[in-house]
């Protein structure tokens, strides 16, 4: 029982991070029909920026903000100067392009920051809370993780549902030509979309790193889990991505707790294949069939 | 006034529009007629910048539209309702309308009320996904949305396509009254030449990308030979 | 050229293979152990790249998981070499290829139903997942440390034969070089024949237009699975050779980076061409040393300078995708085609140009714009 509770709490925390990363992938997929595999190294390199500032003696929060801002800038730059030039090519080319970017950012990070493991601080406690005389697997940082992901989701919902910019962004994502005819600057909206997605990606990078080790490859697994979570939710749906992230976090936590942490990536592969082959539209698909 | 002069556009080696010239005067409906493939839709798409012409100009007042990006057409007062797919089905009815109002600066909710007054059925469905609308309701939505941008020129591509005659008549009556009350300029592309000419002031007949004839609507409707050859009624 | 190589495709390929093998002998005999080892690496990169380029370029399926298949081949070979009295190397390499073939078939059946980004994501998961397996089964598979591989003794008859021809003694690295390049030549001949023949036409048809291919009676799923299996088998063979060359099979040797570098190498060379795979393999083998030296001259530490190689691959991959999707081989072919088109005159000029364009399109792997709906 004790272990089950531990597993569930760990799963929820991890699930929140996967949900954030999946959300980043979904935002870009909706707008440009590209799965941005480079999201992982993009998040990784912004975490390094935070680490450099923190190691230089600044507060965690300065580093945290700097990472999110550099995510915003990086996302915008990538869309404007790389992705924009891909229009009209085959989908394999889009995949290869984001992977090229993956390799580039990865190598750059190792070149600039070195390839060794470095520890990344956490702003809140990493020891589990005491309930009675047992320690549960929910830490202060875990609570912060869950709350910040929920906070980002609320902000995104407010942005997309409640503001004119959000409406313009959604219109650009769904129907570019009509959006342009209605006076929406579609190019700017796509840049903004990539920028926002990169911020959300950076957040997940910071949350994974907190209290752990940072390394140029530390997000490689997360891109897989984020992708699986996004596909679980249907790849097109932000709420689906969030639900997919939580479900995946719980399932992988069970695998890690009861089978072995080495097999977690394999479990995610099995879950991915099962979903793609049985319910290609995601767990929550209603009617519309989808080509996978 | 919308002035099209020597407009030429092509899809690769195929010339879809070949030296088209005509004027659409302010406060009038100009019908663009012709068979399938005559270049009617290409004409509208070239005017609104979705297709770049290889030659010629389209002018709106003092602006040369051929150098204006599509995104800025709404600001200049040009609204284009494309054939068929104009509704953004993933948004709600109200969001579609809001998008139209955004096209020309920020406007208050009063404008949406005007759209709802024109088409009460849209008010009933305002919170629903546009996906659930019928064909006629979609057509009303795209026209209402275009009007919310307060355009001076409205490009309409096949508004009657697939709609019941009663709804077509309703939409055409509305157009007529807008033209007369607001001085709107309308460029109306139609397959259904008979009903288009019944509300238009003048017409341009295209064939294989060229202008065959420009004249008043009455004259075109009265020319039997022309009607049989190009207009199919 | 045609007269020299003969008309029949098979004969042509075999002639090229013999000529290639002669070049290999000359090169391996005239270089030292360090270069020999590098050529052995180039051989396994070439084999894995050839398999991948066939899959992506000819069949339009992408795989980011070929590093995982190489791992399967490498571990198979390493396990078979654990005992004191191992089977002959050809048997071991064949087994590495066959075990990977089975794994490729399992993955391929699932992969055949996916396309584009979905397939990319699934194979990416494969690449990340497989290195965890030996860690979990650390008892048999050696955990993080991996399995050490002892290269068996060089068969005396082989050493004697080479000595008879070249007058030089056989070193281990040269032996591995011969082994690798022999496998490469055999693989290339088989793949070239497959690509030129009915199977290759089927693959291309599926890539270009699924609906048309299906209407022409092609079983889409079968064509895809076959391409995936062939491709994975190549990766397995390459993995076996890698284990021998590196003398170890360990999880750290098969990271996601390996899969991605393999992909970038064949994109640079030119998707869908075996020559491109060979060029890509040469770059994977020789560019690191080159740019690392450059980085050291610029005052970088060894570890950091080593990152210049992937940085270069990544950048060039992006540039190739954006500006020259046909890669190096495609670029050369396009230039040659233009020259031919200019040389020939009159009406045949257009025909020649079309033919040349087909040739170019054949290697770019661009999907038909109307891509079609996938079923089943």
Automatic annotation (TrEMBL), chain A:
Taxonomic superkingdom: Bacteria
Localization of this protein: Cell membrane
Database matches in Pfam families: BPD_transp_2
Transmembrane parts of this sequence: 6-27, 34-54, 60-82, 94-115, 135-160, 190-211, 217-235, 242-260, 266-285
InterPro entries from the UniProt entry: ABC_transp_permease (IPR001851), BCAA_transport_permease (IPR052157)
Membrane topology annotation: Multi-pass membrane protein
Family, as annotated: Belongs to the binding-protein-dependent transport system permease family. LivHM subfamily.
Keyword Transmembrane: yes
Keywords recorded for this protein, A-Z: Amino-acid transport, Cell membrane, Membrane, Transmembrane, Transmembrane helix, Transport
Keyword Plastid: no
Protein's recorded name: Branched-chain amino acid ABC transporter permease
TrEMBL record, chain B:
One term of GO molecular function: ATP binding
Keywords, alphabetical: Amino-acid transport, ATP-binding, Nucleotide-binding, Transport
SUPFAM superfamilies assigned to the protein according to its UniProt record, in alphabetical order: P-loop containing nucleoside triphosphate hydrolases (SSF52540)
ABC transporter domain sequence ranges: 2-233
InterPro entries: AAA+_ATPase, ABC_transporter-like_ATP-bd, ABC_transporter-like_CS, BCAA_Transport_ATP-bd_LivF, P-loop_NTPase
Pfam families (alphabetical): ABC_tran
Family: Belongs to the ABC transporter superfamily.
Protein name per the record: ABC transporter ATP-binding protein
Organism of provenance: Actinophytocola gossypii
From TrEMBL, chain C:
This protein's UniProt keywords: Cell membrane, Membrane, Transmembrane, Transmembrane helix
Organism: Actinophytocola gossypii
InterPro entries named among the record's database cross-references: ABC_transp_permease (IPR001851), LivM-like (IPR043428)
Keyword Membrane found: yes
This protein's name: Branched-chain amino acid ABC transporter permease
PANTHER family referenced in this protein's UniProt entry, alphabetically: HIGH-AFFINITY BRANCHED-CHAIN AMINO ACID TRANSPORT PROTEIN BRAE (PTHR30482:SF10), HIGH-AFFINITY BRANCHED-CHAIN AMINO ACID TRANSPORT SYSTEM PERMEASE (PTHR30482)
Bias kind Basic and acidic residues: ranges: 349-369
Transmembrane annotation, as ranges: 12-30, 42-58, 64-84, 91-112, 118-137, 175-195, 225-246, 258-291, 311-336
């Amino acid at each position: 029982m004790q272990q089950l509770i531990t597993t569930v709490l760990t799963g929820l925390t991890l699930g929140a991070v996967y949900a954030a990363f999946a959300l980043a992938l979904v935002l870009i997929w909706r707008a440009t029909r590209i799965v941005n595999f480079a999201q992982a190294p993009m998040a990784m390199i912004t975490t390094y920026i935070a680490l450099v500032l923190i190691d230089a003696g600044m507060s965690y929060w300065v580093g945290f903000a700097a990472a999110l801002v550099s995510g915003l800038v990086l996302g915008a730059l990538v869309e404007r100067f790389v992705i924009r030039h891909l229009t009209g090519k085959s989908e394999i080319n889009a995949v290869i392009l984001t992977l090229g970017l993956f390799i580039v950012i990865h190598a750059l990070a190792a070149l600039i920051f070195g390839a060794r493991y470095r520890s990344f601080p956490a702003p809140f406690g990493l020891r589990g809370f005491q309930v009675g005389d047992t320690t549960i697997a929910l830490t202060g940082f875990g609570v912060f993780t869950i709350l910040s992901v929920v906070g980002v989701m609320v902000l995104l919902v407010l942005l997309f549902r409640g503001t004119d910019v959000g409406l313009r962004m959604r219109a650009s994502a769904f129907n570019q030509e009509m959006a342009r005819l209605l006076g929406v600057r579609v190019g700017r909206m796509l840049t903004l979309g990539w920028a926002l997605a990169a911020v959300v990606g950076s957040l997940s990078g910071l949350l994974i790193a907190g209290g752990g080790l940072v390394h140029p490859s530390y997000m490689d697994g997360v891109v897989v889990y984020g992708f699986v979570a996004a596909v679980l939710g249907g790849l097109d749906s932000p709420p689906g991505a969030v639900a997919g992230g939580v479900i995946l976090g719980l399932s992988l936590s069970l695998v890690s707790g009861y089978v072995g942490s080495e097999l977690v990536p394999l479990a995610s592969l099995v879950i991915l294949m099962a979903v793609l082959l049985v319910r290609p539209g995601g767990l929550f698909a209603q009617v519309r069939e989808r080509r996978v | 006034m919308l002035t099209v002069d020597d407009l030429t556009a092509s899809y690769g080696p195929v010339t879809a529009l070949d030296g088209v010239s005509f004027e659409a005067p302010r406060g009038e409906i100009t019908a663009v007629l012709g068979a399938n493939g005559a270049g009617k839709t290409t004409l509208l798409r070239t005017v609104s910048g979705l297709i770049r012409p290889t030659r010629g100009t389209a002018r709106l007042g003092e602006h040369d539209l051929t150098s204006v990006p599509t995104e800025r057409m709404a600001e200049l007062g040009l609204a284009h309702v494309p054939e068929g797919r104009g509704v953004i089905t993933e948004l709600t009815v109200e969001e579609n309308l809001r998008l139209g109002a955004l096209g020309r600066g920020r406007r208050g909710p009063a404008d949406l009320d005007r759209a709802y007054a024109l088409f009460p059925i849209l008010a009933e469905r305002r919170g629903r996904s546009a996906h659930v609308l019928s064909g006629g309701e979609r057509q009303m939505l795209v026209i209402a949305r275009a009007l919310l941008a307060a355009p001076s020129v409205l490009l309409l591509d096949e508004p009657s396509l697939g709609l019941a005659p009663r709804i077509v008549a309703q939409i055409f009556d509305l157009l007529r009254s807008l033209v007369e009350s607001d001085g709107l300029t309308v460029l109306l592309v139609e397959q259904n030449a008979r009903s288009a000419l019944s509300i238009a002031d003048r017409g341009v007949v295209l064939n294989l990308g060229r202008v065959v004839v420009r004249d008043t609507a009455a004259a075109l409707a009265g020319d039997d030979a022309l009607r049989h050859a190009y207009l199919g009624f | 050229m045609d007269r020299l190589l003969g008309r029949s495709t098979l004969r042509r390929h075999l002639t090229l293979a013999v000529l290639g093998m002669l070049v290999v002998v000359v090169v391996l005999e005239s270089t030292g152990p360090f270069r020999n080892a590098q050529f052995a690496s180039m051989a396994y990169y070439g084999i894995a790249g050839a398999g991948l380029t066939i899959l992506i370029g000819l069949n339009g399926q992408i795989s980011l998981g070929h590093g995982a298949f190489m791992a399967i081949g490498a571990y198979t070979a390493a396990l078979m070499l654990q005992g004191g009295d191992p089977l002959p190397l050809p048997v071991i390499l064949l087994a590495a290829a066959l075990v990977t073939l089975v794994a490729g078939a399992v993955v391929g059946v699932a992969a055949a139903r996916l396309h584009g980004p979905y397939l990319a994501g699934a194979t990416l998961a494969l690449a990340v997942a497989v290195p965890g397996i030996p860690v979990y089964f650390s008892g048999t598979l050696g955990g993080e440390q991996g399995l050490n591989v002892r290269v068996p003794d060089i068969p005396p008859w082989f050493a004697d034969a080479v000595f008879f021809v070249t007058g030089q003694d056989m070193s281990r690295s040269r032996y591995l070089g011969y082994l690798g390049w022999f496998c490469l030549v055999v693989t290339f001949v088989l793949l070239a024949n497959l690509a030129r023949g009915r199977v290759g036409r089927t693959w291309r048809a599926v890539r270009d237009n699924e609906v048309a291919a299906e209407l022409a009676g092609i079983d889409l799923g079968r064509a895809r699975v076959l391409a995936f299996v062939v491709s994975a088998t190549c990766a397995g063979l390459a993995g076996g050779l890698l284990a021998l060359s590196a003398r170890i099979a360990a999880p750290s040797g098969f990271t996601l980076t390996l899969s991605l570098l393999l992909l970038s190498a064949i994109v640079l060379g030119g998707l869908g061409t075996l020559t491109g795979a060979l060029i890509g393999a040469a770059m994977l083998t020789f560019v690191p040393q080159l740019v690392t030296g450059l980085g050291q001259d610029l005052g970088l530490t060894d570890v950091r300078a080593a990152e210049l190689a992937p940085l270069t691959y990544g950048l060039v991959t992006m540039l190739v995708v954006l500006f020259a999707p046909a890669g190096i081989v495609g670029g050369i072919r396009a230039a040659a085609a233009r020259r031919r088109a200019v040389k020939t005159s009159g009406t045949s000029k257009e025909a020649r140009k079309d033919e040349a364009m087909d040739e170019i399109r054949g290697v770019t792997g661009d999907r038909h714009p109307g891509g079609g709906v996938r079923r089943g």
